[in-house]
Automatic annotation (TrEMBL), chain A:
GO terms for biological process: pyrimidine nucleotide biosynthetic process. CDD domains: sulfite_reductase_like. This is FAD-binding FR-type domain-containing protein. GO terms for molecular function: 2 iron, 2 sulfur cluster binding; flavin adenine dinucleotide binding; oxidoreductase activity. InterPro entries: Cyt_c3_hydrogenase_gsu, Dihydroorotate_DH_Fe-S-bd, FAD-bd_FR_type, Flavoprot_Pyr_Nucl_cyt_Rdtase, FNR_nucleotide-bd, OxRdtase_FAD/NAD-bd, PyrK_electron_transfer, Riboflavin_synthase-like_b-brl. Pfam families: DHODB_Fe-S_bind, NAD_binding_1. Residues 6-106 form the FAD-binding FR-type domain. PROSITE patterns: FAD_FR.
Automatic annotation (TrEMBL), chain B:
It comes from marine sediment metagenome. Pfam families: Fer4_22. GO terms for molecular function: iron-sulfur cluster binding. This is 4Fe-4S ferredoxin-type domain-containing protein. InterPro entries: 4Fe4S_Fe-S-bd, 4Fe4S_Fe_S_CS, Helical_ferredxn. The lineage of its organism: unclassified sequences, metagenomes, ecological metagenomes. Residues 226-258, 308-340 form the 4Fe-4S ferredoxin-type domain.
Amino acid sequence: MDHNTYIPKLAKIIEIKEEVGGARPIKTFRTQFLSTNNFSFHSGQCAMLSVFGKGESIISISSSPLLKDYLQFSILKMGRVTSSLHEMQVGDIIGIRGPYGNSFPVEDWKGKNIIFIGGGIGLAPIWSVLNTALSIKKDYGDLMLIYGARTSKDLVFQEELEELRKRMPVHLSIDVEEPDWKEFVGFVPQNVTDKKPSPKNAIAITCGPPIMIKFVIKALEGLGFKDEQIYTTVENKMKCGIGKCGRCNIGVHYVCKDGPVYSWAEFKKLPQEY
Amino acid sequence: MEKVLSKKAFPQWVKKLESYTMYLPRKDGDFWNYEVIKNPEIIDLDYLNTVLSPKKIIFPQREVLLEFSTSNEEELKINEVLPEEAQSVIFGVRPCDAKALTLTDKVFGGDFKDPYYWKRRNSTALVGLACNTPPSPNCFCLSVDGSPHSKEGLDILITDLGDKYHAESFTKKGDDLLNLAKALFKNPTAKEKKDLEKIQAESKKKIQRQIKDTKKIPPKLKDMFDSPFWDEESLSCIRCGICTYLCPTCHCFDINDEVTSSSPIKGERVRTWDNCQFPDFTMHSSGHNPRPDKAARLRQRILHKFQYFVELYKNYQCTGCGRCISKCPVGIDIIEVLEKARDYGS
């Protein structure tokens, strides 16, 4: 009988970092498998996390696949499972199954400039591919990050972003004015238009709330990006992760299996239902 | 292998198969449903169709995937719970319901073979009962590449020839079942073969409902995603979900943890049927819902069956059993919806 993909592997939480507090808290978890780790994945893929007794939730892996010691997940407290995760402590055991879905075609992007565009927790799936590109930076052209959140307190990876500034341009934004905020004020798509990344030999990757993605794509089109140069990662409610439970489909595509990474050229051919 | 069995000998054949777990349609109040039969004397194949198709035996409405528990040392343990590999036979499967399993096979197969489904599927033989008269006034198998005598998905097909049954086996599983009671079966005579042909031809004429030009529907649906048609057709839907719960091809499921003790934690992870007609089927935990209304959900049901599935697997995900039509409390009729869609705007 084939491997039973529904059975998660047990993993220990080895580090928890509070990224964002307040009403929409985000924490970053680092996990290590209890038994030998043969979990190999590519940037963009997701894992199904279990809190036993609460259920499962599909979460994108935010660490780079080049890092072998741990898996990292940045998780917004939202539903039953993510709320339970937020109550967990270092040393607690969760279940992990996967990896699921396709990945960013990073091999095809060698030699190209890459613009990463994230909103809110949408930086998490981008973080993996960003760090992969950064660790083999010589293989790629110029890298740039455009990232925004509702308020300055809602920005994730704040320490890492400061470090990142030393290695690539980082353009942050918040939705409404705040005292001491020196960067862009407005929505992420507006910041994209404002920073005018060049479409020449470039790839743009965007992830965030569905509404943000729609307008970021419009902004990129306005700058002359072609459909094939724009990538996005999509999220839907998922239960199985393997294209069987029937709820995450957009037309014939099961986001868990055929996604979550799409070029805009592919994605615009699907029915607009996401 | 083609054989004939007298009706009187049928219970004796079933008795010979005692080593198998046997499922037969059984009348329960006003309805027929599959039950495990211990006493073959009381079997009866004089039924229309079961409320739930035999899908529920292969892919049960609720099944445990794994158990989890914390011991006194607080060590968490998980235990895979696979179905027992009991050799089973399901008797009296209607051809539409057997074909439906060939469709769920496609879903539960592929890159990730579902071990729960396939353990049961592989250890179960399907003995079909041809529909000499349609079991429902809403049968329309002929319109979706089926037939009342189709062998698709079956190990054996039984056809009622009056005082005897014609039984044809198509697989080794089927041959094994016939061989267990060799003495009861005779080879069909030329007349019996002729009778069979006649019955088969007549049965097709008795089917009352059909979809005209089914082939035109998938390409038409592809262009109707944004049509107001779906609002119009879904107005009367009360989102009870009976259409998909009774459907022999619907496969959507949910996975949840059920806890029997919270400290120390002990419980099961269970899979249950789920339903695309329910609002929370697709609702994100943020509240965002890609299918926010009845129109989007009816569209998903129809498009999944008559466009997406056709594109993915070259089959309609519908076998024409008519259950969704007969049981819909507000009279949404998939044949009418499809025919209206086919003619919409022309």
